[in-house]
Amino acid sequence: MQLVEINPLDVQRVFPSFYHPHSQFFMITHQDQEVGIYGIKTLDKERAVCELSLCIFEEYRYKLPYKTGLKLLLNFPFTLNFVRIMISTVEKSIITLLRQCQSLGVEFVGYDKDNPKKVWFKVERP
What we know:
The protein is α+β, with helices and mostly antiparallel strands. Helices cover 23% and strands 40% of the residues. It has three helices and seven strands; from the N terminus they run βαβββαβαββ. The chain has a seven-stranded mixed sheet with strand order 1-2-3-4-5-7-6. β6 (107-111) and β7 form a beta hairpin. The longest helix is centred in the middle third of the chain and has 14 residues, at 66-79.
């Protein structure tokens, strides 16, 4: 799997609900196929904290090497000098997956006070 930076305005035009103005976006490619979009939103520039967003295109879900992909996606922000990554989700399957990723440095933070279905996780630079 590889990440190729893409123009944020393309994301805004094609996937407006995924767009955020303080984000960098990357096309996820696997075996020369575009399989999804990965976003890194800066939450706190001074403390180097970001939030990850991920959209895997429907036809590639359950067909990707998730362990390899997860390692790439969880470590990539550190190459951009972020020191803490925040991840939120309401998807039960993703919550289950992230709870099982302690060996990759993923820590459960808690439930969102405004949306009790949303769960927060963090990963800090090793």
